[in-house]
């Protein structure tokens, strides 16, 4: 919650500029609140689920989010075909890829295979019916990406506002959740202890780094990228995250890299380079 609050503060000038403009288009603001809702639900579900399952199983479930945007596109186009008549039907049907290199499901499935290999060593727990709740996080994160793609292209001149409002929405929703669940310290002693922790320069610097660099800045870049790339392409790129985490753990923490990690990394790299490598062939 704190990192989202700090990230929101970073975009206060965007709020001031937006609401001082005449006339004010509230569509960008309201739509961004929806993006924050999906993101907040994903984080809350993740935090709750980690109390009952292993981190590896939760990480694997998050990897499933990479195949969600193409599914959302397929469902959306299916409903559009059913509700559109005559020539519009033909136009939409022509958008459905027929070539293997154009198929939006191939890169996500390759990335999912790589993520599965990366997390395979931690998936030795027996499956439980309650594991179905693990899908709440990837579905909501993927929906946030999918909606962001459409929202950022509809309001290309309001990227700062979209980012700021989404972060504000996450902050408010998570604050309400912590108050309702009693996890936010409200008594005098707990508040003093929390203040003392936040005054520690190591904690403060870590919060500033995660709030500004890894939350505000990356969220802003994400909204800009979604003007160019699709949500499906963006989630495939996001599947590189565990590879970079492993790389920095190897460099900084001197952790060993297993053969399974290397194989999983190869799969994910293939997924991210799928379109560039086959672009010439697709044109043919």
For this entry, what is the oligomeric state of its chains?
single chain
* Share of residues in helices: over 70%
Largest sheet: none
Q: Let me know the average pLDDT.
A: 77
What is the molecular shape?
globular
Counted by DSSP, the helix tally is: 15
Number of separate strands: 0
Number of domains: 1
Please give the alpha-carbon distance between the first and last residues.
49 Å
Instruction: Provide the gyration radius in Å.
Output: 21 Å
pLDDT below 50 for ≥5 consecutive residues: which ranges? 85-98
What's the order of the H and E elements? Answer: HHHHHHHHHHHHHHH
Structural notes for this entry:
It is a single chain. With 284 residues, this protein is mainly alpha-helical. It has one domain. Helix content is 75%, strand content 0%. α2 packs across α9, α4 runs antiparallel to α7 and α5 crosses α8. It is globular and about 55 Å long.
